[in-house]
Amino acid sequence: MSLTDRYVDAHTILQVVVGSRAFGLATAASDTDRRGVYALPAAAFWPLTKPPQHHEGPLPEQLRWEVERVCVLGLAANPNVLEVLHSPLVETCTPLGGELRELTPAFLSRRVVDTYLRYAQAQFGKAERGIARSGSPVWRHVMHLIRLLTAGGHLMRTGELVLDVGADRDRLLAVKAGDLPWAEVVAWRDRLVDRLVSSLDHSPLPAEPDTDRVERWLVSVRRRSVAVSG
C-alpha cells in the first residue's frame, strides 16, 4: 500500500459497494465495485500543488473522490455519485460520512432528466457504433443504460432513488447476455425515455438542488478540519 493509499484511507468518510451487487444483478462472476468519499484537511489545499480529486485503489475496482468533487458532481445529478450516496451496502461511514448521507436530499433535483438522458444518449451512440463495427454492442453497457433510465424515471416520479432493479432483474440479465432482440431493447429504451421526460412537469423533486445547503456543509467540513489540526 502506497503513502497516498494510506493518506486517503485515513481521511475516508464513506465507502459503499455499488455496481451489480447493489443493483441486484450480481452473479457468481461479479466483481465488488467499491466507491467512496474522502475529506482532506483544509491545509492540504494551501500549497500551490493541490491534492488529487479522486484516487483509485488499492483494492480492485475501488475508486474514491475528494468530498468537494462529490459535492460538485452530486449537484449536477451525476448518476455515479448519487448511487454512492444511496447505496444500501455501506462498508465505512464516519460521523462526517453520516452527515453527507443525511445531506442527500439537497442534491436531488429535476436536473436528473438532463444528466441521465445525456448519459443514455452517449451510451446508446456507443452501442450503435459497436453494432456497425462488429455486429454487436457491449451488452453489459446496454443493460446498464436501461437500468439507469429505469432508476431515473422512478426517481423523478417518486423523489426516491432505488438501486435494486427488482422485478426487472431477469430481463436485464437477458439484455446483458445478448438474448433480447435489438429492436426490443430499443423499444424498451424509448418507453423509458418518454416516461422520464413526461415526469418532468409533475415530479416532486425541486427544479434545482439546494446548492447553498451543500456549500454550507462543505465549508463547515473544512473549518472543522482546521480546528482539529490547530
From TrEMBL:
InterPro entries: RlaP. It holds the Pfam family RlaP. It comes from the Bacteria. PANTHER family: NUCLEOTIDYLTRANSFERASE. This is Nucleotidyltransferase domain-containing protein. It comes from Micromonospora cathayae.
